[in-house]
Amino acid sequence: GGGGGGGGIPEKVAIVMGTESSGVSDLMLNAADKRIYIPLRGFSDSLNLSVSAAMIMQFLFWVCPEAEGDLDEGERAALRAAWYAQLARTPEQAALHARHLDSPPAPFDDLRRPPEHRTAFTTRRQRARDRAVVGGEVEGPSSAAAGEEEGGEEEKGEQ
Questions:
Q1: N or C: which end of the chain has fewer CB within 10 A?
Q2: Which of 16, 77, 21 is nearest to 52 (CA)?
Q3: Is position 80 within any domain?
Q4: Where do the record's region annotations for Disordered lie (predicted)?
């Protein structure tokens, strides 16, 4: 592993991101050697967390392309034990995680949600229209789908 060191990046780095409303805790601010802020121009005063994280990681790898992380096996094992203990919500999960301490599962090839769970939100009215089109009963935009009135309470409650 390459570690840090290049371009002013220290060997060990923690990237901590705060909430949009209150930022990071005072404890984190006081522990930080450096702080960064991503200035924005235009209509928005904040970025989505994943966008911010991606921008920071891309910048770090641009500045120090050899940075890969180089925890030794002892550090990894200690971190894994602490992390697994926090992940477990039930005694059964704690037992399952404990079995994986010495031989952790392999990382996923693809971190995205499975295709069957990648559905966008649609209202009941739109789902009814979609079912009607699939069933061969094409409805016009002014007709009520599945007996719902246009702009009814049921529709408003889902938005």
A1: C
A2: 16
A3: no
A4: 94-159
Structural domain includes residue 122: no
- Are the C-beta atoms of 12 and 70 separated by less than 8 Å? no
Distance CA 155, CA 140 (A): 18
Query: Contact at 8 Å (CB) between 104 and 80?
Result: yes
**Is the pTM higher than 0.70?**
no
The C-alpha atoms of residue 7 and residue 61 are separated, in whole angstroms, by: 10
- The range of the structural domain enclosing residue 37 comes to 6-63
The answer to whether residue 85 is domain-embedded is no
Report if residue 43 sits inside a domain.
Answer: yes
Mean pLDDT, the chain cut into blocks of 10 residues (159 residues total): 56 84 89 86 80 90 83 90 92 92 87 79 84 67 45 43
